Amino acid sequence: MVRWFAVSTLGMPGTPIGRAAGLAADHGCAGLEIRTHPDEQVHTGLSRREVSEVRAAVADHGLEIACLAGYARVCAPGPDGPVVAELRALVDLAHRLGAPSVRVFPGGDVESRDRIGEVLDDLRSSGVRLLVETHDSHPTGEEAVRLVRPFGAPELVSVLWDALHPWRHGEAPARTREVLGEYLAYFQVKDAVGATPVVPGLGAVPLAECGEVLRGWSGWVSLEWEKAWYPDIPPVDAPLRAAAKWFAEYRTG
């Protein structure tokens, strides 16, 4: 069993990748989850030179890129073409950056099988895995796994378990872990009081239960601190220290 700790740059909006990687390394992270967005340094329009700069900035701090956090919505209303194009662009960027996976959202009630199916060859040839997050229209493990199980290829298409959303929608951590099974590929630590993010351990999310049911599982564990969406919450340092402590407690067994 191997587990690695990372932090998402969502908690450091506007911060250059080199500085974000330095902060992550200072807190004992092995990886950096990179928000991929037009407002940030990393986006799908990066040139070859810019890709090299990002890779070097992360590697210079002894880190790996744990995941690219993209915003494609595989079940979004509308035609398939734009969704497939966005997925392809994210997979290509992940491949160029050396990232093992790309996070996407469900985002609606449109059938996603054909859309994801269109990029299976891209995933296979690039070695990148597509991760559908437990979020928005499919917030529980039971709902999210329905989008990926038809492909029968967890090494290509799996689920990112966001600690908050399944629990908030009535699915206990043990149930989430059970239904995801081999399709669990990534775990995001977060805590909240109501809708407001708080330092892990100070909110209502049952992180101790999450830690226990994750014992025996291998993969990336990342703190997602949503400062990009909640600019008035504190800087990432305190939640990152708390998440690192939680990770250390549950990383083995």
UniProtKB/TrEMBL annotation:
Pfam families: AP_endonuc_2 (PF01261)
SUPFAM superfamilies: Xylose isomerase-like
Keyword Isomerase: yes
Ranges where the Xylose isomerase-like TIM barrel domain occurs: 23-249
Highest taxon of source: Bacteria
PANTHER family in the cross-refs: HYDROXYPYRUVATE ISOMERASE, XYLOSE ISOMERASE-LIKE TIM BARREL DOMAIN-CONTAINING PROTEIN
Designated name of the protein: Sugar phosphate isomerase/epimerase
